[in-house]
Amino acid sequence: MSKEQKEFGGTIGAIGLMIFSHFVPFYFTLSLRYNSGGLYFPLSFNEFIENFKETCSPTWSAFYLYTGFCLLQLIFAAILPGLKVKGLPVPTENNRQYTYNCNALASWYLTLILLTIFHITGIFRLTILVDQFGSVLCVAVICSDILSVFIYFYAIQTNQTCRMTHSPIYDFFMGVWLNPRVKILGQDVDLKMLAEVRLSWLLLFLLIVSAALKQYEAFHIVSWPMIFILTAQLLYINACMKGEECIPTTWDIFYEKWGWMLIYWNLAGVPFVYAFQANYILVNSLRTQKPTEGTSMILIIVLFIVLFFAYYIWDSSQAQKNRFRMKQRGTYVPRNTFPQVPWNTLKDPKYLKTNCGSTLLIDGWWKYCRKPHYTADICMATCWALSCHQWPGVLPYFYPIFFFGMIIHRYTRDVSRCKTKYGKDWTIYCEKVPYAFIPGLI
Ligand code: NDP
């Protein structure tokens, strides 16, 4: 078994990140409840415990809501029609290529249709999610922790581990199982894809819709900042679903193992932390009873313009790269998913042939810088935070700051992996495309 180099500061870093990641969503939830999304400082430890119990105690209804949602997505993943896509050969499994049934888009549309019908008819009011936010969060955290422990021991027990370092805490954090799959109703479902694409983003969208509906119930309007955050998340999440067939060959799927880091952030972190802005707008609307006062319409217009522009670069650049790679492998299938933005498929693009056999795109957006999609993503994250401008505060900016740190760290990990993979060719690539994020600048 190969010895893997440790990332994230090794075992100590892993412990620190696990503690921090547990702290963040609960702190945000308490800040929303007890200080309208401002910094939350309980007067005593007892007060903190009382607040925590009052807001975040797990309940049976929260348990049914969360596990029901996950189960429904698991069943949809097994039964709905989708595009069958082959992943990359897995070197640790004799170059086996797994098949992925990319049906997230069908699942996304069906979930939205069902929940709209349920909400309108009153069978299931979506506002229950925002009412029980803390309890559902607590259930999600418990479920993701239990699942991480189970997956860790199950993979070891069944000999399905790969790239182990033999530092148990670090391995638990990074994961030990590369391709966790289960058979549901006779169909193979890839749990890592399910969690990454649907459980995280779909639940996030439902939490945001829930906050918007709550605002509508209270005031019979949805404010512009709320419409902005809904639009921003809708675009982002829809893009994850419509481009699912590009995901099996991405880094997360062919390289990252399904450990605590991915499980926790997909099942609990992303939906509950990234929903902060919508909840911030909601609680402050309710506190002031003035959902529109203080909105700068000029800023909202600027935010919409920046959002659409950044989204366009983000979507088209990723499509360019992924479709280029798929065409090279002969796996490209045109899909008419909505929306198809202009310039998302390059005809005869320039690329760099490398000695390891892979090719690097140096055309389209990729001739200007090496990570155009990261820059666009940072812009979108900043816009999310600025949508909370009506009630100035610090915590809405946590997301862009966290995202910036996370993506820069991801960039350094990716560069070191690419340097190892491509060797001298990576230097040639960096000479051809010298800027990483902003052409002419950095
Ligand atoms: P990339 O899409 O940049 O994938 C990196 C890999 O792509 C490299 O390891 C390399 O793999 C290949 N590659 C790099 N340059 C080229 C090139 N010029 N031509 C062809 N292939 C190339 O990274 P991520 O998976 O990190 O990001 C995908 C998206 O997900 C980004 O938009 C990012 O912002 C977003 N993201 C969002 C998160 C969130 O929480 N909101 C979290 C993480 C990511 P190889 O050559 O080995 O195939």
UniProtKB/TrEMBL annotation:
- Name the GO cellular-component terms: endoplasmic reticulum membrane
Domain of life, source organism: Eukaryota
GO MF, any single term: Delta24(24-1) sterol reductase activity
A Pfam family in this protein?
ERG4_ERG24
The keyword Hydrolase belongs to this UniProt entry's keyword annotation: no
Subcellular localization is given as: Endoplasmic reticulum membrane
- Which family does the UniProt entry place this protein in? Belongs to the ERG4/ERG24 family.
Topology relative to the membrane, per the entry? Multi-pass membrane protein
**Keywords for this protein:** Cholesterol biosynthesis, Cholesterol metabolism, Endoplasmic reticulum, Lipid biosynthesis, Lipid metabolism, Membrane, NADP, Oxidoreductase, Steroid biosynthesis, Steroid metabolism, Sterol biosynthesis, Sterol metabolism, Transmembrane, Transmembrane helix
Q: Does the keyword NADP apply?
A: yes
Q: In which pathway does it act?
A: Steroid biosynthesis; cholesterol biosynthesis; Steroid metabolism; ergosterol biosynthesis
Matching entries from Gene3D superfamilies are given as: 1.20.120.1630
- Reaction it catalyzes: ergosterol + NADP(+) = ergosta-5,7,22,24(28)-tetraen-3beta-ol + NADPH + H(+)
Instruction: Write down what this protein is called.
Output: Delta(24(24(1)))-sterol reductase
